[in-house]
Specification:
The complex is a heterodimer of chains A (267) and B (383).
Chain A (H helix, E strand, L loop, with lengths): L1 H34 L1 H9 L1 E6 L2 E2 L3 E3 L5 E2 L1 H13 L2 E6 L5 H6 L5 E7 L9 E2 L4 E2 L2 E6 L15 E5 L3 H11 L6 E5 L2 H9 L5 E5 H9 L4 E3 L8 E6 L4 H17 L1 H9 L1
Parallel strand pairs in A: 1-5, 1-6, 10-11, 10-12
Antiparallel strand pairs in A: 2-3, 3-4, 6-14, 7-14, 8-14, 9-12, 9-13
Chain B lengths: L1 H18 L1 H17 L21 E4 L8 H14 L3 E7 H4 L9 H12 L3 E7 L20 H14 L6 E4 L16 H18 L4 E7 L14 H10 L8 E7 L18 H11 L7 E7 L12 H18 L3 E7 L25 H11 L2 H4 L1
Parallel strand pairs in B: 1-2, 1-8, 2-3, 3-4, 4-5, 5-6, 6-7, 7-8
Helix pairs in contact in B: 3-5, 6-7, 7-8, 8-9, 10-11
Classes of the chains: A alpha/beta (267), B alpha/beta (383).
């Protein structure tokens, strides 16, 4: 009698567990299928369609044969691979990227796309995967310049008319830092002048600085960005599950060092 | 007796009121209440009419004041355009912003922009597109205008021209219809665009016979035949003529970006450069419209450090000034050149920022000062 009661209890427990499993599976199916048509389509077709303006090296470029390559291309391919699907790239002029996304011409935008706070009701943005803001570069052995306040009386190289030039002028005029601005034809030339000792520091975008540090080197940069230019991935507003998958994967890629590897590969 | 009693009571009452602890405070608060109750007066005034001082009357810029909310910023932008020496501006007037319901117009913001521009001595060219939600199906972009709503667009053109009669003389019908994106992600259709142009032209002239109607600036593109994304601009214009567009415009808006090539790079059907504008004019001439003027409503070079189609800032300055000079000296058929874009209301934070002359915070870029020097060159000696 006692044994029969124990058996009955086990049966009820198993039944309850079965019910819970079924309910969870149902919720999962409903969540996937009903709340994110984009993810559903990616899974159904085995293809994620990525919109980009392929005129932006080293992030996205198209060669004469029509092949896409660059940092963003590798990033999108890695995402696709982790989801077990194939990435298909669509070249769209930058002005038309958002309209292309919202009219279903592509599933997501990976195009060195800066975060735009005015569009957060229209699209979903992933967390940032790259900061293309301005950095302050100094020579490798330089220890006296620890930040912008150390630029007083120093010669600072910038690219004429660039964001770095405007930032240096802002420091001069608003920050009242008495630095001497030395304009060059490009940010690369400003960094070369820094390397050669013609200027004491240089302000340039992070990509140019990373490239110079990588090769030929001889300079370093201060970790703190002078300005932010956060690149993000954009999705349609009904792509909540896709957003979660991308956010999770980006966090994982960062932890695993994949984003650092991409940086080394392209800059 | 009764009378003196009454005055006594009143005096007593006033004395009590005056002695009340709140009386003094209320007395002090009254002027504040009066000030608060007044209708606020505009802080920014239009100011006296100005004139543009320049050696090159064909100089222009494309402004982006559509999304600029604060009036002082609108005024400052236009002041800086004048101070740079450009007498022309091209501005975007989105139909969907001003006619949110059929037949109900709100001209508050465009009035602000146009009145300030006129006070600065600037001539305004108005580009009109952007379809309101009521004139297109759901899930379409603001560039999607179904044929059954062409008449609504033409009605808006009528209302716009009527409202701005005497203030705006030039209207541009649509923008870059040879791009799929600008045609609501449909295949570009020169015949359909011609029908839109014809409808808009008729209504514009009904509103003001003196208005100058310009056919849309076409995106310079070498898209192969049948491309999903666009149509070659020269082919598009020819097909417009074939569809009977002649007589439905008084001039043509032209887009002439130089990308990485100098302004003197020769025009060729398989090249995208500044001189491609001459090929647009050649198509017009071939179709008997050689006497009509072209207005270069978008042009310029970009100095973003990473964009593939950009040039270094020094070269951008050189090319820009040469382009203004070329239009003045060598292109009699070209009425003006507007460089894209003078200033954005906020940073685009991408390569688009490399087109501007002034930052959103009104900081002058070196190109601004260089163009200003060019526009003033010889003026003082001449004056």
């Amino acid at each position: 009698m006692k044994r029969q009661g124990a058996l009955q209890r086990w049966l009820w427990l198993l039944l309850a567990l079965g019910c819970w499993t079924l309910a969870l599976l149902q919720i999962r199916t409903w969540f996937h299928g009903q709340t994110d048509p984009t993810w559903e389509q990616i899974q159904r077709t085995g293809v994620v369609r990525v919109g980009m303006d392929a005129t932006y090296p080293p992030f996205e470029v198209q060669d004469e044969a029509g092949h896409f390559y660059g940092y963003d291309v590798d990033l999108a391919e890695e995402l696709a691979q982790r989801w077990g699907v194939r990435a298909e790239f669509i070249n769209i002029h930058f002005d038309g990227l958002y309209d292309a996304l919202l009219t279903g011409k592509c599933d997501l935008l990976v195009s060195a796309l800066p975060y735009d706070e005015t569009l957060t009701e229209d699209v979903l943005y992933s967390p940032s995967y790259f900061n293309a803001g301005l950095l302050l570069a100094v020579r490798e052995g330089e220890r006296r310049i620890g930040g912008v306040n150390g630029l007083g009386g120093k010669k600072v190289g910038v690219a004429l008319g660039s964001a770095g030039h405007l930032e240096a002028r802002r420091m001069q005029e608003q920050g009242r830092i008495p630095l001497h601005i030395v304009p060059f034809a490009s940010a690369w030339e400003a960094l070369q002048a820094l390397h050669a000792g013609e200027v004491d520091a240089a302000i340039a975008d992070s990509i140019t600085v990373y490239r110079f540090v990588h090769d030929p080197g001889g300079i370093r940069y201060l970790k703190r960005f002078l300005s932010d230019e956060q690149y993000v991935i954009a999705m349609r507003p009904d792509s909540g599950y896709l957003w979660k998958r991308i956010a999770d994967e980006l966090a994982r890629m960062k932890k695993e060092g994949f984003l650092d590897e991409l940086q080394r590969r392209w800059f | 007796m009764h009378c003196s009693r009454f005055f006594y009571d009143v005096r007593l009452c006033l004395r009590r009121v005056a002695r009340h602890p709140l009386f003094l405070r209320a007395l002090l608060a009254l002027p504040l209440l009066w000030l608060a109750g007044r209708v606020p007066q505009p802080v920014v005034r239009i100011g006296p009419p100005q004139t543009v001082q320049t050696v090159n009357p064909k100089m222009g810029v494309h402004t982006r004041l559509t999304d600029e909310v604060e009036e002082w910023k609108i005024k400052r932008t236009l002041e800086m355009v004048r101070e740079m020496g450009a007498p022309w501006i091209v501005e975007y007037f989105p139909w969907g912003y001003y006619e949110r319901e059929k037949g109900h117009y709100d001209w508050t913001h465009p009035d602000l922009v146009v009145n300030h521009a006129l006070a600065q001595g600037l001539t305004v060219l108005a580009r009109i597109d952007f379809v309101p939600e009521w004139a297109r199906p759901e899930q379409t972009t603001p560039r999607y205008l179904p044929e059954e709503h062409f008449v609504d667009y033409a009605d808006f053109i009528y209302a716009f021209v009527k409202h701005f009669s005497g203030r705006i003389r030039y209207v541009i019908i649509w923008n870059e219809p040879n791009l799929s994106f600008e045609w609501g992600y449909r295949q570009p259709d020169p015949e359909a665009y011609t029908r839109l142009l014809q409808a808009a032209y008729r209504r514009a002239k009904e509103a003001d016979p003196d208005v100058v109607v310009l056919a849309a600036g076409l995106a310079p593109t070498l898209a192969p035949p049948g491309s999903e994304w666009g149509m070659d601009d020269l082919e598009f214009l020819q097909r417009m003529y074939d569809a009977g567009a002649r007589g439905s415009f008084d001039g043509v808006a032209v887009h002439a970006y130089g990308w990485t090539l100098p302004p003197d790079d020769p025009a060729a059907p398989d090249a995208i450069n500044f001189a491609r504008a001459a090929l647009i004019h050649a198509v017009m001439a071939r179709n008997g419209d050689g006497e009509l003027p072209c207005f270069i409503t978008e042009a310029g070079w970009n100095d973003h450090p990473r964009w593939a189609k950009a040039v270094p800032p020094g070269l951008r300055i050189e090319y820009t000034i040469r382009a203004y000079e070329k239009a003045l000296q060598e292109w009699p058929w070209c009425a003006m050149v507007a460089m894209w874009a003078f200033r954005y209301p906020r940073p685009a934070r991408n390569y688009q920022d490399g087109f501007t002359f002034v930052t959103p915070a009104f900081t002058q870029k070196p190109i601004y000062s260089a163009v200003q020097d060019y526009a003033r060159k010889g003026l003082q000696a001449g004056e």
